[in-house]
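Re: Re: C-alpha cell formats

Sure, here are both.
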Amino acid sequence: MSIQEETVHTQNKIEVKDVCFDYVDKKSSFAALDHINLSIKEGEFICILGSSGCGKATLLGLLNGLNKAKSGKILLDGKPIAGPGPDRAVVFQQYSLFPWLTAKGNILFGIKQSGKKYSKKEREEKAEEYLRSVGLAAARDKYPSQLSGGMKQRVALAIALSLEPKLLLADEPTSALDVTVQAQVVREMLQVRKQFGMTILIVTHNIGVASRMEDHIVVMKNGEQREYGTRQQVIEHPQNEYTRYLLSAVPELEA
C-alpha cells in the first residue's frame, strides 16, 4: 500500500485503539476502561451512553488529555493526544460563567482566550455569530443571574465554540436541566454540528438524549464497550442485553 493510499484509508478524526485505563492507589487498582475501540469521522456527532461508573467520563478525560491510557492509542487527526490543547474544548455538566459579565461578555472572553488575533470588530461579530448559533441573540446583554439553566448551558456551549476547537467534548451537558430544556440544548448542539461542521462527542446516562443523536452511539458498562452502532441500530434494534435494559429503564425525552 502506498503512503497516499494509507493516508486516505486512515482519515478518521479520532482513533481509539485498544485503550485500557486503570485507577491505581497504594492498595489496589480498578480497571476503568477495558480495550475500547472507536473510529470517529470528521463532523460526526457521537454519543457515549452508560450509567454512572461505566467509564464514559474516564474516556472523555483521555480524549481531553487529562490522563494517559495504560495501553493502546488515542489519535486526533492521526497524532497521539499527549495532553490538553486548544484543539479541544469541553462543555461541562455544571456551567461556569463569570457572573459580572453578560452572555456576550462571557463569549468575548472566550474568543480572547482562543489565541486568535482578531480585531475588536471581528471579536464582536464572532460573539454575535455564536450567540445566534445557540439561539441567544436576544439575551446578549443579560447577566448569568438573569438566565435560566438551559440558557446558561447554551452560553457555555457558545464559549466552547468561541475557542474554535477541532473537537467538542460534552460531559453530561443536560443532566442538570429539566426534560424539555434538555431537548432544546440537544437541538442546539445538532445545529452547531450542522453549522460549523464540528466533530462532537457527548457522554450521557440519558437514553432520551442519546436517541436524539444523528450518528453513532457507544454503549458502555463496567469499562467495557457493550454495543456500538448507528442510532437506528442501537435504539431501534439493540443487540446487547444491557442496552435493552437502558431502553426500558430511562424515560424518553419530550419533544
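Second one below.
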Amino acid sequence: MIDLMKYLSENSYPGRGILMGLTSDNKAVAAYFIMGRSVNSRNRIFVTEGENMRTQAHEIIRTWAFYTIAKSLYHTGNIPWKDIMICGFVLAKPGEKISKSKGNAKLTPQDLIETYSADVIRYWAAGARLGTDTYFDQKEMQDASKRTITKVWNSSKFVLSHLTDFDPDYVPAVEVPLDKWLIERTNETVREAGRLLDQYEIGLARKVIDDLFWKDLCDNYIEIAKERLYEPDVHGAEERKSAQAAIYYCLLNVLKLYSIYVPHLTEYIYQKGLREFVGVPSIHQTLWPEVEAVDEKLIRFGEEIKDAVSLMRKYKSENNLSMRSDVNEFVVDGSREFEGWFQATEKDLYACSHAKQVIFNYTEE
C-alpha cells in the first residue's frame, strides 16, 4: 500500500489545496474521496492485502460504507473488505450518544484514563455487543471493571507465589483429575473465545473469559485445591506439582486471553512472574494454544464437583456458618462413571469443606 500522506504532499491532484489546508486528523478521511479519481488502482488505495474488516458505527452504513464500497469497485474493481464490524454508540442518556459538540459528557476520555486507568476503560468498553448502544454508567465501570482487574492482580500474585519452585518441563507422576479439569476448561475457553473473536463478538468473548477466570479458577479451583498447594506433606509432593502445573497453565492462558482487553496489567504480571518460564519477550508476542478438541467427560466431572461445592457453601450460608466452619458431613452427588475421579479428589473436598466425613452418593446414568 502506498504511503498516503507522502503521496498527498508530493503529487498534484484535484482538491490538493483544500486537502493540504486540513488538519492531519481530517486528511485521511478527505483523501478517500479526493484521491479516488486520481490514484491508479495498482496502488490499492482502498484494498490492502490481508485486510478483510472495517469497523464503523451503524448510522453511516448508507453513506460512508456505501461510498467506500462503490468507489473501490469503480476505481479498482475490488471490494475494500469482506466484513464490516458495526459498533454501537456510547450513550450519555437514553437515545443520545456522547458527543463532544453537545458537551454531554461529564469527563473527557483523558480524565477517565487518569482517574481509572486505560485498562479499566478498555475492559469496560469491550463489554458491548455488536451493533448495540451502551449507556455510560461511571459507577458500573468503576465497580465491575475495577473489581475484575483488581481480582486479576490479586489472584496472579497468589498463583505466582506458588510457582517459585515450579519447573514447566517437569511432568508430575500424579495427575489429579481436578487439575486436568482446569486445563480442559482453559482449553475450552480458548477455543470458544477464539470462535467469538473470529465473528468480531468482542463482548461475548470477554464474557466467556470472565466465566473461566471468576467461576472456575478463582471461585472454585483455587478454593478447592488451595490446601494441596500449601501442604504437600499432607496431600503429597507430586499432587502439589500437579496443582502447580494446572494453575500455571490456566493463569498464563487467562492472561493471554485478557491481554487484548487489559494490555498493561497483563504485560506487567507476565514480566514479573511468567516470562522466565515462557521465554517470549512480551505476552503480546505469545500465541494461544492450538485446541483441536476438548475432553467433554472432564468438563462434566468438573461441573459435578462445582455443583457439590456450591451446595455445601449454600448450606453453610443458610445456617449462618463461615466457609471455614466444621461440618459433620459433606454429601457429594455424582455420576458413577466418575467414581475414580471423585475418590482421587477426596482430600481436596475434605480440605475445602472442613467436613468430618465426605460421603459420595453415586447415580447411574
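Residues 304-363 form one domain. Residues 139 and 145 are 10 Å apart (CA to CA).
- S.
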